[in-house]
Specification:
Length: 246
C-alpha cells in the first residue's frame, strides 16, 4: 500500500508531534486513519519523514517520526521563471506546471505590453493565491520545497534579478538563436533565469535592454506559442538540455 504524503505547515524537528488542524480532520474523518497507520510528512523546508499515528482523539492526532526520507526531488540547479503576468487564470496554470517541473522561484513581472493591471492589494492577494497553488502542486508531485512566488515586479527590477543568474534566457519569437546552442556552454550552470513575455510579447527595447545586461535571446522555433505554452516548454527544454529530466 502506498504511504500517503502530506505537507505540514511547520518545521519537522521533534520526535513526536500533534496535529489538531484540518490535516488532523483529513486523516481522521476523511481518510479514516487509525493508530498504527503510517504517513509521509513533508515540511517543505527540505525534510520529509515517515511517521506513525500513535494516538487519536476527536480532532487530534499524535504521530511519532520514524525515519527521515532521504530521496530528494529537488533540482540541483536553481531555475527561476520570470513571467510577464498574462490575462485571466493563465498564471495559475503556469505556476502549477512550473512547480511540477521543479522551478524554485517564480517571479511575476510587469512588462510594457502586460495588459493586467494590479493594485498593491490585488497583487498581494494574487501572489498569495499563486503561492497556495505552488504548495498544492509541490505536494502532488512529490517535491519537498515549495517554490517561492514573489510579488509582481516591474521588468527593470526583473532584469537586475535575472542578470545575477549563471545563464539568463529571454524567449523572443523574433530571433533565430536556437536554445540548445545558447545553453551548450552553460551545461554546468548552477542557476538559470528564464524570461517569458506576455500575450503581446516583449517590446524590442526590452529585448535590447536585457541583451545589454547579459541575457541570451533565444527562440522556441518558428511557431508563435501562447505565453503559457512558452513558459512550460522553455522550462522543460532547459531542464532537458541540462540533463535534469533524467
Ligand atoms: N508578440 C508575439 C506575436 O503575437 O507575434 C506573441 C508573443 S507570445 C504569445 C508570448 C511569449 O511567449 C513571448 O513574449 C515569448 O516570450 C514566448 N514565445 C512564444 N513563441 C515563441 C517562440 N517561437 N520563440 C521564443 N519565444 C516565444
Amino acid at each position: 500500500m502506498t504511504v500517503r504524503r502530506f505537507i505540514v505547515p511547520f518545521r519537522l524537528t521533534k520526535e513526536h508531534l500533534a496535529l489538531t488542524d484540518d490535516l488532523a480532520h483529513r486523516l481522521l474523518h476523511v481518510l479514516r486513519m487509525k493508530v498504527g497507520n503510517r504517513v509521509l510528512l513533508c515540511d517543505l523546508q527540505g525534510s520529509e519523514w515517515l511517521a506513525e499515528i500513535v494516538s487519536t482523539e476527536k480532532n487530534f492526532v499524535r504521530l511519532q517520526l520514524l525515519e527521515r526520507v532521504s530521496t530528494s526531488q529537488e533540482l540541483e540547479v536553481e531555475i527561476k521563471l520570470f513571467q510577464s503576468i498574462p490575462k485571466g487564470e493563465k498564471m495559475d496554470f503556469i505556476v502549477q506546471k512550473a512547480t511540477e517541473l521543479g522551478v524554485q522561484k517564480i517571479v511575476p513581472m510587469f512588462t510594457k505590453r502586460t495588459v493586467v493591471q494590479l493594485s498593491p492589494e490585488r497583487a498581494k492577494s494574487r501572489r498569495e493565491r499563486w503561492q497556495k497553488i505552488a504548495a498544492a502542486a509541490t505536494e502532488q508531485c512529490g517535491g519537498r520545497i515549495v517554490p517561492e512566488v514573489s510579488v509582481p515586479i516591474p521588468f527593470k527590477q526583473a532584469v537586475n534579478e535575472a542578470s545575477a543568474a549563471d545563464v539568463w534566457l529571454l524567449f523572443y519569437e523574433a530571433t533565430d538563436e536556437p536554445l540548445n546552442e545558447a545553453i551548450k556552454p552553460h551545461r554546468n550552470a548552477s542557476s538559470v533565469a528564464i524570461m517569458v513575455g506576455p500575450e503581446g510579447g516583449f517590446e524590442p527595447s526590452e529585448v535590447e535592454m536585457a541583451k545589454q545586461k547579459g541575457a541570451k535571446v533565444v527562440s522556441l522555433g518558428k511557431r508563435i506559442l501562447r505565453t503559457e505554452t512558452a513558459a512550460i516548454v522553455a522550462v522543460a527544454i532547459v531542464l532537458h538540455e541540462l540533463g535534469l529530466l533524467g
